[in-house]
Write a structure and sequence with these properties.
globular, Alpha-D-Glucose-1,6-Bisphosphate, Chain A, domain 4
Length: 135
């Protein structure tokens, strides 16, 4: 199994970023792809038109999200990976730290590229277009 740790600073508050990650409408807008999210512990989600599926395992409002996570590229017998998203206030907004563990062998490079291209780049554009005063 493989692990990724990535981070990005986004021009948005921790509270708004946390909410956007767990909100079906905002997640759909910042990824430009369909997402349906039940924002409760135990709630299921899908993103990228069903390519990504999982469940919210732990939620610490505005601080941390832990999800089971898999894509249609996982073998049926492969266990879910774990996605931990942490939110830290910084002077320019929020540092999002993404720790993705238990990735099937040989898939981490592809997922790293996917996080950068399909999440981080569009999120930066989405939140920069909605600049707000950072507290």
């Amino acid at each position: 199994m493989e692990t990724l740790i990535l981070s990005i600073v986004l021009p948005v508050s921790r509270e708004k970023l946390y909410h956007a990650w767990l909100d079906s409408d905002e997640h759909t807008k910042f990824t430009a792809s369909s997402a349906v999210i039940d924002p409760r512990v135990g709630g299921e989600f899908y993103a990228w038109n069903g390519y990504i599926t999982g469940k919210n395992l732990e939620l610490e409002p505005s601080r941390r999200i832990l999800q089971s996570w898999r894509t249609t590229d996982f073998a049926d017998e492969a266990p879910d990976s774990l996605l931990e998203i942490m939110f830290e206030s910084v002077p320019d907004g929020t540092r999002l730290i993404l720790r993705h563990t238990n990735i099937p062998e040989g898939q981490a490079v592809s997922y790293e590229q996917g996080w950068q291209e399909y999440y981080f780049a569009p999120m930066l554009k989405y939140f920069a277009a909605r600049l707000e005063p950072v507290k």
